[in-house]
Amino acid sequence: MSEQRDRWAELTAGQAGEEYARRFARLAESGHDIHGEAAFCTTLLEPASRVLDAGCGTGRIAIRLAELGHHCTGVDIDSSMLAVARRDAPSQEWLPGDLARLDALGLEPRFDLVLAAGNVIPLLAPGTESTVVRQLSAALRPGGLLVTGMGLDAAHLPLPEPPVTLAEFDHWCAQAGLVLRQRCATWSGDPYTEGCGYAVSVHARPAR
Ligand SMILES: C[S@@+](CC[C@H](N)C(=O)[O-])C[C@H]1O[C@@H](n2cnc3c(N)ncnc32)[C@H](O)[C@@H]1O
């Protein structure tokens, strides 16, 4: 496990699962589309692809991707979040684990897509980000995709200021052998322009 607690744990003390699920249930009830990430990912995937939802939380996205026909594994370090995922989709694979030590879970590194949505990257433990990106890259098959969504300003983060810049993130991806393929400002695919508060990035692991 990381020596320092992740920023999510600092914010929530590991108790956020039920409230997080209720927040999205309320959004869905009021007519918001809470499946933008899954819809975005599925446009990048062949039918019945293998997806790793890294920092899956309550399983909101992995459950939807499974409904869309993909094979999803969810990994998260927060047991209150995973408890909701297990309750809502007991037949899916939910693994407790630290993304900085993903290799310790013994997963076969053959995922078609690894997803880190919902500000997982900015909410990691400080100083572990480049290690996590390397671990996520290593879980991909050649030609596989890393898809991330992260806030770049306080309006798009549950933090007073962004701990990670896009330039730093791209640098960690390049160090991990990943190539930027696409960048949007939203999960609906709106074009990214310099200064946007949110970035959806698709990095590819080059095919051998
Ligand atoms: C804001 S939640 C997003 C959950 C989910 N991806 C979603 O979009 O609904 C951020 C998640 O990242 C997870 N996380 C942060 N650091 C982690 C780490 N080192 N290993 C595994 N999960 C981590 C947290 O436990 C939390 O569930």
From TrEMBL:
Q: Which GO terms describe its biological process?
A: methylation
Top-level lineage group: Bacteria
**One Pfam family this chain carries?**
Methyltransf_25
What this protein is called in its record is SAM-dependent methyltransferase
| PANTHER family in alphabetical order | METHYLTRANSFERASE
GO MF, any single term: polyprenyldihydroxybenzoate methyltransferase activity
- Annotated Methyltransferase domain ranges read 51-144
